[in-house]
Amino acid sequence: TVLSKLLRALPKAELHLHIEGTLEPELIFQLAQRNGIALSYPSVEALRAAYAFTDLQSFLDVYYAGASVLIHAQDFEDMAYAYFERAAADGIVHAELFFDPQTHTERGVAMVTVIEGLTRAGARAQQELGISSALILCFLRHLSEDAAFETLEQALPYRQHFIGVGLDSSERGHPPEKFARVFARCRELGLHLVAHAGEEGPPAYIETALDLLKVERIDHGVRCTDSPALVQRLAREQIPLTVCPLSNVKLCVFPQMSEHNLPALLAAGLKVTLNSDDPAYFGGYLLRNYEACFEAFPQWGRAEAIQLARNSLEASFAAPEQKAGWL
Ligand code: ES4
Ligand code: ZN
Predict the structure, then answer these.
(1) Catalytic hit among 199, 200, 207, 304
(2) Which CATH number does the domain housing residue 309 bear?
(3) pTM of the entire structure?
(4) Which ligand does the CA of 168 lie closest to?
């Protein structure tokens, strides 16, 4: 259709993408074989069949198991380059990739291995696909703040290879304030700051992410609508929300796409962006997320498509000169 051609053609940025969440079952099996790692699933089909999630935690258990096949820098490079190829096909011009170093360092994979592999993929994506990209290091919030500090220390020799830090993994019971000191340190270091908040957690977590962590964007943030005062603030301050529609349905944050609150968020004047989160697990890459929304929300048309794509470029951490070329 005319609209789906527009959705592909519009220059877009992807701002909420866990690179470990782009590991397709086929690549998981290929890397397991290459690295001599035993998987607890007999086949690609059996693994894919396990992708029936009831909430965030039920997904995370499978996601961390999948990441265990990543051992060498080449593995990280292959995974990320496969993502960039799909991103280019979807009309993405710029991608900011989350990575979870603790998922790897806890298994004995060195920080340098992770960052080198991802950095090489980003350089090739720029060269061969014309996509710009950056890395955002995420702290796992189910681990301690001390563990986050240790991770930051391990990453600082490679400071020039990442632009910011984020906060992900199990949200409930792990409020932003648990990481106030390490985020303050990252701020002093000139890193960009983001955090997952209001995916499963309450609006209060969005407020503390803004006020105590001083994040520049909120990842997810969809539960802000439980607090009208917070919605007003997010609109007034034009805080970008990196919403992940297919993720939210797969993890049962909303029962189906037609019941997602995206239309309300956009109508309230929030700076909403669409993103794919963990596309290998949630049923589609960025363009599929756009398409699923435009199928589910009949009131959305050309104007919304243009707005959402523009929001993604504006909310990115790309240099102003680069943004000027897109906008
Ligand atoms: C994640 Cl969907 C989601 N939420 C929180 N943490 C994550 N890590 C990877 N995907
Ligand atoms: Zn996420």
Answers:
(1) 199
(2) 3.20.20.140
(3) 0.98
(4) 1
Cα 66–Cα 61–Cα 140 angle in degrees, nearest 5 = 95
ipTM exceeding the 0.90 mark: yes
Q: Which ligand is nearest to the CA of 67?
A: 1
Residue pLDDT, tens place only, 51-68: 999 999 999 999 999 999
Determine the atom of ligand 1 nearest the C-alpha atom of 169. Answer: 6
Residue 252 confidence class, pLDDT cut points 50, 70, 90: very high
Q: Which residues line ligand 1 (CB under 6 A)?
A: 18, 21, 56, 63, 168-169, 196, 199, 247, 277-278
55, 92 contact by CB (below 8 A) = no
Residue 199 designated active-site: yes
Distance 286 CA to ligand 2 centre (A): 13
Binding site annotation covers 94? no
The reply, when asked if residue 146 is annotated as ligand binding, is no
> In this predicted structure, what is the pLDDT of residue 2?
82
Q: Specify the length of the chain in residues.
A: 327
pLDDT higher than threshold 90 for residue 1? no
Q: What is the pLDDT of residues 128-147, one digit of tens each?
A: 999 999 999 999 999 999 99
- Which structural domain, as residue segments, surrounds residue 224? 2-315
Q: What is the domain count for the chain? A: 1
Q: Is residue 326 part of a domain?
A: no
